[in-house]
From TrEMBL:
<feature type="transmembrane region" description="Helical">
    <location>
        <begin position="6"/>
        <end position="26"/>
    </location>
</feature>
<feature type="transmembrane region" description="Helical">
    <location>
        <begin position="88"/>
        <end position="112"/>
    </location>
</feature>
<comment type="similarity">
    <text>Belongs to the monovalent cation:proton antiporter 2 (CPA2) transporter (TC 2.A.37) family.</text>
</comment>
<dbReference type="GO" id="GO:0015297">
    <property type="term" value="F:antiporter activity"/>
</dbReference>
<dbReference type="Pfam" id="PF00999">
    <property type="entry name" value="Na_H_Exchanger"/>
</dbReference>
<dbReference type="Pfam" id="PF02254">
    <property type="entry name" value="TrkA_N"/>
</dbReference>
<dbReference type="InterPro" id="IPR038770">
    <property type="entry name" value="Na+/solute_symporter_sf"/>
</dbReference>
<feature type="transmembrane region" description="Helical">
    <location>
        <begin position="192"/>
        <end position="220"/>
    </location>
</feature>
<dbReference type="InterPro" id="IPR036291">
    <property type="entry name" value="NAD(P)-bd_dom_sf"/>
</dbReference>
<feature type="transmembrane region" description="Helical">
    <location>
        <begin position="319"/>
        <end position="341"/>
    </location>
</feature>
<dbReference type="GO" id="GO:1902600">
    <property type="term" value="P:proton transmembrane transport"/>
</dbReference>
<feature type="transmembrane region" description="Helical">
    <location>
        <begin position="240"/>
        <end position="257"/>
    </location>
</feature>
<keyword id="KW-0812">Transmembrane</keyword>
<feature type="domain" description="RCK N-terminal">
    <location>
        <begin position="443"/>
        <end position="560"/>
    </location>
</feature>
<keyword id="KW-0813">Transport</keyword>
<feature type="region of interest" description="Disordered">
    <location>
        <begin position="580"/>
        <end position="603"/>
    </location>
</feature>
<feature type="transmembrane region" description="Helical">
    <location>
        <begin position="348"/>
        <end position="370"/>
    </location>
</feature>
Length: 603
């Protein structure tokens, strides 16, 4: 039996080394993705020792991009996409044009052809899907207005790059090449009928195919995909359901790329978006999460494999210029564009930080440019160097924007500060902790973190009992609904200290952590206990280990959902077999309180 297993060795080598170096980076207070990139450099061809398969790694990474965009689509409705089209479409187009112009200028200064300089500029203009979405998800910003604008901006960039991949052969003719159309349908017509559609025909054909794909997904896909998932769910097989989620995500993405010329990431996004209309969307997101994270790590490893550290020594000035265009030029352009649309400075800073890096589409453009003889290999190396450095710098860019936000958002002296009252007339976005925002004036209140199926039950009981309470929630839609009902709300991630500070922890009597993420819950409990040692902290868990961990970090009471469900069942059986008194909970004797509030792992 042959033991040459490049696929297995690439996955094992990439994940194991990424885990080790990611843990070291986390220990050094650096983002884990820095460790993933360094792992890629170590297993790449430019460093001694083991070399992973350079053909397989990018394909494995592409699976991560597909699953990540599918997950974003599950949390992103068509209404959300259309709501930001007014800023995302013109903003992305102007930003792409500005960054491409800067890249073209740098290429011209180095003596490259016009076509090569344009390809170089385009490669520097498009942000990485994985990096942008990871950054938004870590900060719980995907469902906020800023997150929706950033994702919409990203979708427009993807559509523009799909068109650019068709037009690059036309740019090759500027450099003197003899390259025919690469758009499949146009190439087929040219070969069979001798019909040359020209550049305008190729562009038109591409736009028609993209529009046809979107129409099919919105008309037929939004009915067929949810129906299919419901049928699979009714089989009762978790394995089939998980397999169905992966089949839809990967199948739609691959079919979109092959049949309609749409990028794999964009196809997966639309698949997730139409499935989002099903009530099974949350379960689908949970089932695809482990593979999504694993393959996203392989993406960063594959990027690191392409990087040749020697270019930092041989061509330092062009590398610095490239990084400047990506990190500074693009970010400043995006910041000014968002301000022109009269959006808050905090939103502009988030968008600019999100776009201050490049990734997977840049590599595709660079490879195509080199294959067509447009872009010199030096240009590809500069793009790779710029990608690596900008991805490493991106967390620092977010950190800098967080520090700049209060300065840019400082109110004028004659303006009165805005208070958050118990009536919650105003909605607070705590990830933008501006100086005119003050903690809630509530005192002796309860703080409820998370308003999902568990948190909503707790909140309804607090409201019916007349207990003053405040809700911290990451979903903008839920906070708007609660604020309309007169409930005090804070929009943002409770894991951030500035968010909890807005809830007035020192004056609160209790804290209910209803989110299912034990890691984040521990952070919340630890900080709350340090600020208010006497506060009652109630949390939820899914295992005995999580119970112990939460108590170690300061929780007074931890409810494990599975145990409460089991106790509710035992008590109900006791009513029948041992004549125990029935529950009186206002819902009849068939409803057990433990089951009503019991969390599930799918939440």
């Amino acid at each position: 039996m042959p033991h040459d297993t490049p696929l297995i060795s690439t996955i094992v080598g990439g994940l194991v080394l990424a885990f080790i170096l990611g843990a070291i980076a986390n220990r050094l207070k650096l983002p884990p993705l820095v460790g993933y990139l360094v792992a890629g450099i170590f297993v790449g061809p430019h460093t001694p020792g083991y070399v992973a398969n350079q053909d397989l790694a990018p394909e494995l990474a592409e699976i991560g991009v597909i699953l990540l965009m599918f997950g974003v689509g599950l949390h992103f409705s068509l209404k959300d996409l259309l709501s930001v089209r007014g800023i995302a479409v013109p903003g992305a187009i102007v930003q792409i044009a500005f960054a491409s112009l800067l890249g073209w200028g740098l290429g011209a200064m180095m003596g490259w052809s016009t076509g090569g300089s344009l390809v170089f500029g385009l490669a520097l203009s498009v942000a990485s899907t994985v990096v942008l979405l990871k950054a938004l998800q870590e900060r719980r910003l995907v469902e906020t207005e800023r997150g929706k604008i950033a994702v919409g901006w990203l979708i427009v960039e993807d559509l523009a790059m799909v068109l650019a991949l068709v037009l690059i052969p036309a740019a090759a003719s500027i450099g003197g090449g003899e390259h025919g159309p690469v758009e499949p349908l146009s190439a087929g017509l040219n070969r069979l009928l001798g019909l040359d559609l020209g550049i305008s025909g190729i562009v038109g054909m591409t736009l028609v195919k993209v529009a046809l794909f979107v129409a099919l997904m919105l008309v037929f896909g939004r009915k067929l995909i949810p129906w299919t998932m419901h049928r699979i769910a009714h089989t009762g097989s978790r394995e089939l359901f998980r397999l169905g989620v992966l089949a839809i995500a990967l199948g739609v993405a691959f079919g979109a790329a092959k049949l309609f010329g749409v990028s794999l990431a964009l196809g997966a996004f639309f698949a997730g978006m139409v499935l989002a209309e099903s009530e099974l969307s949350h379960r689908a997101a949970q089932e695809s999460l482990p593979l999504r994270d694993a393959f996203a790590v392989l993406f960063f490893v594959s990027v690191g494999m392409l990087f040749d550290p020697n270019i930092l020594i041989e061509r330092p000035l062009p590398v610095l210029a490239t990084v400047f265009i990506i990190v500074i030029g693009k970010s400043v352009a995006a910041f000014l564009i968002v301000l022109l649309f009269q959006k808050p400075a905090g939103t502009a800073l988030t968008i600019s930080a999100s776009l201050g890096q490049i990734g997977e589409f840049s590599f595709i453009l660079a490879a195509l440019g080199v294959d067509l003889g447009l872009l010199p290999e030096e240009g590809r190396d500069l793009i790779l160097a710029g990608a690596i450095i900008s991805i490493i710098l991106n967390p620092l860019l977010f950190f800098a924007c967080d520090r700049m936000r209060p300065l840019l958002s400082r109110p004028k002296r004659e303006e009165a500060p805005i208070d958050i009252t118990a009536a919650a007339e105003a909605l607070v976005e705590p990830s933008e902790p501006e100086d005119d925002i003050r903690p809630t004036s509530l005192s002796g209140h309860a703080i409820l973190v998370g308003y999902g199926r568990v948190g909503s039950i707790v909140g309804q009981n607090l409201k019916s009992s007349g207990t003053p309470f405040l809700v911290i929630e990451v979903s903008e839609k839920r906070t708007e609904e609660l604020a309309g009902q007169g409930v005090a709300t804070v929009l943002g991630n409770a894991g951030a200290r500035e968010v909890l500070d807005l809830a007035n922890l020192p004056a609160a009597r209790s804290l209910v952590i209803a989110i299912p993420d034990a890691f984040e819950a521990c952070r919340v409990a630890e900080y709350a206990r340090s600020v208010n040692p006497s506060i009652l902290i109630v949390a939820r868990a899914h295992s005995d280990a999580e119970v112990d961990e939460l108590k170690q970090y300061g929780a007074d009471t931890v409810i494990m959902g599975e145990r409460e469900i089991a106790m509710g069942m035992v008590d109900r059986l006791a009513q029948v077999h041992h004549d125990s008194p029935a529950y009186e909970d206002g819902h009849g004797t068939d409803t057990i309180p433990g089951t009503a509030a019991a969390p599930s792992k799918s939440e």
